[in-house]
Design a protein that fits this description.
The chain has 136 residues and is an alpha/beta fold. Helix content is 42%, strand content 15%.
Length: 136
């Protein structure tokens, strides 16, 4: 099984989804994330994932790899931008869309922004857990 999580900049949402998928999926599954742009790994995403004992600190912000995309079993977009800009895939690639707000766009105090990241992390945790249990 090969999964690909996509969002705009591959800095937050898709990185968190990749982290949770690697936690929940069987060890022989191939799981990656990417973006339609590269925004760098968001430090708050790293921090809130560490709170759940998932280390994404060595992940990189990657652009979509068309070969990997075309050979994936599932492509999951986590924002409208990625859904709209995702390259065409063959009919055998299953697509899902999870419309999640970008926590990196949040404003407020550091603690308020951190809480938005936590909320997004928790939503992604549940989505990934349910998705993997549905398809495995």
């Amino acid at each position: 099984m090969q999964l690909y999580f996509l969002c705009t900049g591959n800095s937050c949402r898709s990185q968190m989804a990749e982290g949770f998928a690697k936690k929940y999926a069987p060890s022989d599954w191939i799981i990656k994330s990417a973006g339609v742009e590269q925004h760098g790994l968001n430090k708050m995403a790293v921090s809130v994932m560490a709170e759940n004992n998932i280390d994404i600190s060595n992940n990189t912000s990657d652009l979509i790899d068309n070969d990997y995309l075309q050979s994936s079993d599932y492509v999951i977009t986590l924002c409208g931008d990625a859904k709209d800009k995702c390259p065409m895939t063959p009919p055998n690639v299953n697509k899902e869309h999870w419309p999640l707000d970008d926590p990196a766009q949040a404003s407020g105090t550091n603690e308020e922004i951190l809480n938005i990241f936590r909320s997004t992390r928790n939503d992604i945790d549940e989505l990934v857990y349910n998705f993997i249990n549905r398809i495995k």
